[in-house]
Prior knowledge:
alpha+beta; PH-domain like; 2 domains; seven-stranded antiparallel beta sheet; 4 helices
Amino acid sequence: MAGLFFGVIMGLVFLTVFDLRSAIIAGLVAGASFGLGIWFFLSSKKIKKQTELKLQQGDEILYSDRANHIYKGEALGGMLYLLKDRLQFKAHNFNVQNQTVAIALSEIKEIQFYNTLRIIPNGLKLLMPDGETARFVVNNRKQWKEQIEKAGNKEV
């Protein structure tokens, strides 16, 4: 999806310099290159090792996937893990802000969806009783919500 989005944007930029056919070809090449670059980056052993969660005794990963944690204006790349008592995000080391965030399932008051850039339906917003929020960009946000509700045994 990122490659497609990037390719369309670059195609429009190239349209200001080239003719329509050249702009379309350049947009396709740029999008495919960007998409493959992101795929290789995220599939690397180094990223997997940096985002691997070290489990405590009794911990069990119920669900996990790549995600971005929106924190202080930065989309931190990493992995989001759902354990039986908490959500835990572990950022990779290529972020400016590099942190691990843990949110107890008992502290999640409500789960909402939002659209990234107001159009991409991949945002998950967690509201806490104290008014704090945590925002994540995830794949399959409906599945994430269902899994969190099931693990927290609550109807959010």
